[in-house]
Specification:
Helices cover 64% and strands 4% of the residues. It is mainly alpha-helical. It contains 5 helices and 2 strands, in the order E-E-H-H-H-H-H. Helix 3 runs antiparallel to helix 4. The longest helix has 26 residues. It has 2 domains: 40 residues, no CATH class; 66 residues. It has a two-stranded antiparallel sheet.
Amino acid sequence: MSTPSLSTPRLLDLKGQTPMIANDPDDSRPTTPDSSAGRRRAAKAAFRARLESGDYRELFGGRLGEVMAQAAEEAGVVDELGALRIVMARLMEEEDDLEVLAGLVARVASVSIQAARIQRAITGQLAESLTDAVTTILADLEGSDG
């Protein structure tokens, strides 16, 4: 059995006497499948195997991959805008410190504005607005020439 290095975290047993080594990622001791450490190790190993397979769709597992693909099918950021509005409402309701509230509201508002711009661009509203603006400018230029 190897001697632990000085940098290895140490724990004492319940009596405070026997030094024990803290969770070591290289520890190969068996754990029971129903223990939290065993479940974490199994999940890490499964994730690592999916990662090494190189298949992005399978990276997070079957059901989560399906849900992510379904969410990605929807063009737009309508759900994200709704979530930002809920966050803003909760901030206004729950935060009592006005200085903290001002900073958080500014951040959420900034992201909301960006998301709204993206949504307009996706739906074509921005293109229509730009077309109208360019048409108006050209009409004004033609009127000033004659």
